[in-house]
Amino acid sequence: MSKQIPFVDYLALEPEPHLVANECTSCGARFFDRRNACASCFATEFAKVPLSTEGELRSFTIVAFAAPGVDVPFVAGIIDCDGTTVRGNVVNTEPDAEHVQLGMKLKLTTVPIGEDTAGTTAVLNAANEIGVEAFLNRQIRFDQIHAVNLETLGQISTAPPQTLEDLLELDKISRGAASQVVRRIGI
Ligand SMILES: [Zn+2]
Question: How many Cα atoms occupy the beta-carbon half-sphere of 107 within 13 Å?
């Protein structure tokens, strides 16, 4: 079996897969990205905290358009894990509105991503997060999320990432490109 690298840096694989948040030691706000100061209280001390591997679906979009090699449709969700908001794909269920419902209980799982499509999937994942967030912030319309995905994918050439550093770099570049698309097409 080839070496596993976590798809996002807040996923820990050992001993069992779980997510790890950075928690502000002053106010308890939780973040998944690395930041220098808390967005809520501006304190600068953080502690790593493991999250519950179970949660409830709070919001979702069914992503119907993607690049070749990425299986669609898939479900991008926002999940409440014991009070912490987590983004992730909803899997192991039919990706339609009949089977995916707000409030449904979810459990964290991990899926292997093929080495040849890992780059494309990383770009799409990052673009979709930016798109969904922009939609939730009313910066773009719901039907523009897939335009953000497609345009970002079109802009970035993807060699398969070999290391976590490669993956994080690709994620960063993709987020930047997707944010630019949002600014350009935003309402
Ligand atoms: Zn804080």
Answer: 2
Q: Which residue has the tokens 């192991």?
A: 92
Task: Report d(CA 12, CA 176) in Å as an integer.
Answer: 25
> Other C-beta atoms within 10 Å of 184: how many?
10
In the prediction, which pLDDT does 1 show? 42
Residue 46 CA, ligand 1 centroid: distance in Å = 9
Cα-to-centroid distance, 42 and ligand 1 (Å): 6
**Does residue 149 contact residue 124 with C-beta atoms inside 8 Å?**
yes
**How far apart are the CA of 29 and the centre of ligand 1, in A?**
5
Beta-carbon contacts of 67 under 8 Å, excluding residues fewer than 6 positions away, are 120, 124, 150, 153
Whole-number Å distance, alpha carbon 144 to ligand 1 midpoint, is: 33
Sorted by sequence, the CB contacts under 8 Å of residue 159 that are 6+ apart come out as 119
* pLDDT tens for each residue of 22-55: 999 999 999 887 778 998 999 999 999 999 999 9
Give residue limits of the domains in the chain: 7-51, 53-185
Task: Give per-residue pLDDT as tens, 161-173.
Answer: 777 778 788 889 9
The domain over range 53-185 is classified in CATH as 1.10.1740.10:
yes
Residues paired with 77 in a beta bridge:
60, 88
